[in-house]
Amino acid sequence: MDQILTFLEPNFFPWRLLAAAAAGMILSLSGSLVQSITQNDLAGPSTLGINAFIVLFVIALHFASRLLALPLPLEWLSLILCCAVTVLLLFFFWRRNCGVAVRHSAFGQTNMDFLILVGLCFNLFVGALFSLFEFFFMSLNWEFPSELWYGNFRLSLMSNSLPLVIVAIFLWGAALKMAPRLQLMSFSSHLAENWGVNGKRVQLQAILLALLGQAFIINFFGVFSFAGLIFPHLLRSISFFQSEIKRELLWGSLLCGIIFLLLDFACTHILILGAEVPVGMLSSFLGTSFLFILLINRYRRRQQ
Fold it and tell me: 161 CB contacts (<8 Å, ≥6 apart)?
């Protein structure tokens, strides 16, 4: 028994490797789900404001923790409240018969372009609010999660890595179960309806799964911006993943988990003046560069 407990100690077992791999899987699955239901190559957890929505909860709870005696650790309390509010919002949209169905205008643009623009503006607003609260907390000598905006796995322990692995496996199985319906919706929403697929339900389920995965990652390890956007595009650049979305969800998420693990492993061994570069900062740089390229290519296609 003592040997088993020793094996589970953080200093013995590579929890950081597991956390990075699980986060890579969740980021890939979240991006694939969001892009499949919106049919928009610019959609992702970051561009739709999902990440900023969760960060807003974390900021609010850190402020509330200075005013109230909260019974649970902040990361778990933020996670519980974020998931509860998400379920209530999705139930409200379900009752109002709202979905994120793609509708084309005369110029070939979709209503998702507007939602992405709103999401990016919301990201900027939360980023400014984050800086304002950071300054406020520092001026009062209060602790503030400054590293939240650029995630890293330096504080990986069994208590936060194991739940992330469990969530990654759950999302993986749930996404695979949705794969046939997502495949039909990728061809045509009318075709999916003819085959008995409730498009609105699939959309809300996909958004809920994406937000659940992002909530676990952000509350435990911080924000990894735009990784969920670039991973699906990286996979679809390979011919093996282009024909069937189930391959992207099944094998692509595993591949992205390995890529994210190697990316974090490189960050731990390539130091700048003795300091480790957060993998979240690196993913933000790569993601924003990739988003810029996507926007240029999209503009060129519309000009042709």
Answer: 15, 16, 18, 19, 22
